[in-house]
Amino acid sequence: MSLGIKVFAPASVANVACGYDILGFALTHPGDEIIAKFVDTPGLRIAKITGAQKKLPLAVEKNTAGFAALKLLEYLGESDRGIEFEIRKKMPFGSGLGSSAASAAAGVMAINALYKMPLTKAELLPFAVLGEQIADGAYHADNVGPSLLGGMQLIRDNASLDIHRLHLPKGLFATVIHPHIQILTRDSRAILRDTVSLTQAVQQTGNIAGLIIGLYNSDLGLIQRSLKDVMIEPQRAKLIPGFYDVKAAALENGALGCSISGAGPSIFALSANSNLAENIGVAMQGIFTDLKIESQLFISKINQEGAVVM
Ligand code: HSE
């Protein structure tokens, strides 16, 4: 037996309008916690999951946190060591907030903390991505990257995890609204067409390039012109009742941009300060209230730290 350690990994917003599968940022809250300890019985075991209404598997190989941790333990040559996890889900899943990614990031952080940090966070990333992969079948780090490493991360190439932290203007705030409907990432990916037109590709690459220059130069006008998704949002918007009204409300209230968070149904907006972020949140939530859809609002700075030992 040993004393436990506790880790936290935050929610994240993936895609960030024009960066499907290659861009994401971390929020300060909500997030998942894992309490881990060494035990005498060999092997990794998930003893308890709270906050998930029994909807997440306790079986280690089927659980994103468990699988990521298992892969890391194999790498460390410690598969037989007795370890027990308690997972505290403190965020909704199927929400577009990177819930499975946060669990996977917390899983590898917990193992690394138990072993007194043999790996850097960057070295933990491939194991965390493997964990998330079992949730939606795809290997992409646009949620796991920010949840683990913090900040806004650009993944130039997912296969090799060529990942880069972007400079951000001071004061940037996110507003995220989670309407209480559930969309599974797997389903939200399945509806996407395999091809895009050359016109869309040109517009989207212009926007992602413009966004990055805008972020580096703190050029809010350029950020605003670039936070547009012509490829994915038009295909997924139909999954979210009231999406275009919520987006219009955010933009009318000063958002730099507004789009679907990850695979949805959450919707995010970025703005220049916390006051704007709060006003935007009220306006976005008002639309869902009018539609009689319950929703939860999160106002957050960009979390530069990512997953932490608490
Ligand atoms: N980039 C992913 C998607 C994020 O939009 O499907 C959700 O896992």
Structure overview:
The protein is of the alpha+beta class and 310 residues long. It has 2 domains: 5-166 and 305-309, Ribosomal Protein S5, domain 2; 173-301, Alpha-Beta Plaits (2-Layer Sandwich), CATH 3.30.70.890. The protein is 37% helix and 24% strand. It is built from 10 helices and 11 strands. The chain has helices spanning 64-76, 99-114, 121-136, 144-149, 185-190, 198-216, 220-226, 233-236, 243-252, 274-290; strands spanning 5-14, 23-38, 44-50, 83-88, 152-157, 162-165, 173-179, 257-260, 267-271, 295-301, 308-309. The strands form 2 sheets. Strands 1, 2, 3, 4, 5, 6 and 11 form a 7-stranded mixed beta sheet that branches. The chain has a 4-stranded antiparallel beta sheet with strand order 8-9-7-10. Helix 2 (99-114) crosses helix 3 (121-136). The longest helix has 19 residues, at 198-216. The mean pLDDT is 96. Bound molecules: L-homoserine.
Topology:
Blueprint: E1 5-14, E2 23-38, E3 44-50, H1 64-76, E4 83-88, H2 99-114, H3 121-136, H4 144-149, E5 152-157, E6 162-165, E7 173-179, H5 185-190, H6 198-216, H7 220-226, H8 233-236, H9 243-252, E8 257-260, E9 267-271, H10 274-290, E10 295-301, E11 308-309
Parallel strand pairs: 3-4
Antiparallel strand pairs: 1-2, 1-11, 2-4, 2-5, 5-6, 7-9, 7-10, 8-9
Helix pairs in contact: 1-2, 1-3, 2-3, 6-7, 9-10
